[in-house]
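User: Predict structure, ligand nicotinamide-adenine-dinucleotide.
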Amino acid sequence: MDLNNKVVVVTGGANGIGRALCEKFAEAGAKVAVADLDMSAANELANAINGIAVSTDVGDETAIQKLVAETEDKLGPIDIFVSNAGVSFSDAPGWMAASAPNDHWTASWNINVMAHVFAARAVVPGMIKRGGGYLVNVASGASLLCQMGDAAYSTTKTAALGFAESLAITHGDDNIKVSVVCPLYVATAMTEGGRGVSGQDEVMTAEQAADAIYAGMEEETFMILPHAELATYSQRKGADYDRWLKGMRRMRQGMLEQNPEYAYKV
Ligand SMILES: NC(=O)c1ccc[n+]([C@@H]2O[C@H](COP(=O)([O-])OP(=O)(O)OC[C@H]3O[C@@H](n4cnc5c(N)ncnc54)[C@H](O)[C@@H]3O)[C@@H](O)[C@H]2O)c1
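Assistant: Predicted complex:
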């Protein structure tokens, strides 16, 4: 994959995994648009990598359309669109699977799923006309397994994987490449610097995650797994769902013993 002079958009590019990706793409010669709500970090990064910063709320379709128009105006037609921005809340305060407030569910849908739809709607027709393009959608290990204690995150990240599959099947023959990225734990603000649920999960740095994503993009792999062990976990789940659920319930009980405040009360 030759990134020299390629135009790349990275949403949620100002911090965390997105920031590490922007730096990596710029190092490879790409012209990068850093799209984020955090404009102070986005401007600082854009200056450092000779890119542009675009204030964008990815959950708003008009904002995505403006991001595409501004990027194409300033940098040229978009070759690669990385939908990386994402949010996670938790099942607090009720800690039942359906107890998170509706505004957290709505934000999770809009940012973790609909933003990918808005991006594809805005860039795929132009990419097809130009002969191809690449969409990289950052989902999560929660797309394949489950993020205990955050049903909205697990549900929407699973939906993001479903949408990436539809994109790849519908547009693969149009030379639209699609990758979906499913990391386990990465030390960023989202994980408060890196916390694993089981205590055994490998927590990687954002730079390590970006290196793995970049390597997956070079191979044009659909499913990019920065944490290789996720492949085994998800095969075990697929082979025996009931056994997997029992194991997850056991893990949840272990977590509740350490953190009794996460137990729900009826
Ligand atoms: N950190 C992890 O362990 C982990 C694991 C699996 C998947 N992920 C996914 O990786 C992606 C990046 O996560 P991260 O850990 O780097 O998070 P982060 O919180 O460090 O960074 C997220 C960035 O997205 C921006 N953002 C949030 N809402 C936005 C919106 N509506 N519009 C535009 N920008 C917005 C934030 O300002 C921030 O710059 C997310 O999709 C996340 O779900 C992270």
